[in-house]
Amino acid sequence: MVINRGLGKSAGLLVLLAIILGGTSLAAAAPIRISCVGDSITFGIVPKRLHNAWPVVLGRILGHRYKTLNCGHSGATMLKKGDIPYWKTAQFKWAIHFKPNIVIIMLGTNDTKPWNWDKHGKDFEANTISMINLFKKLPTHPKVYICYPPKILKPSYHIIEANLVRGVIPAITKAAHVTHTPIINVFAKLPGIPKYYDRDGVHPNIKGEAIMAHIIAKAIRY
Q: Residues 6 or more apart from 128 whose CB is under 8 A from it?
């Protein structure tokens, strides 16, 4: 960097200070990028999902300093040997290439299907640890949060709440403890009543998605 010598010492220092402060302002203005990892509950099975899915609502709640990316893939599992492993989806690549500063993971609902959980449920904790560590080791060193998925009101699509409560949630708890990762308890904080769910009893409706966004926003802010 060259400062115009004709300005004089004091003026030159002021110019230098302005450039430094200007650079600082530009750096501070860079958005905090959030990759939202999940299945159809994250993707958003709601009308006008590009406006109403929880990652989009989360972005509106957090404001202009944040930029969210919906990386939900319908049917995806945490299990690497599940029927639709999240690991093999394009959305998994999106979540990484977004260079996130924050990653929110909400997987496990589809893992409760009998052909997934009965055969491979024992791998859920290890697979969760692997995903958390993979994101944490990205060059941006993002803060990673993992969510307990929402309640299941009825066994649609062969999704079983007993496997969620007795298997998935305890495994998430253990993985979070091992990796020192904060848990966002969507399961407990989103009321398990039809008012907030689609008729299938699995996917939150527009109201439910909005509540999830507020739950997650509060966890990130505080």
A: 78, 105, 146, 171, 172, 175
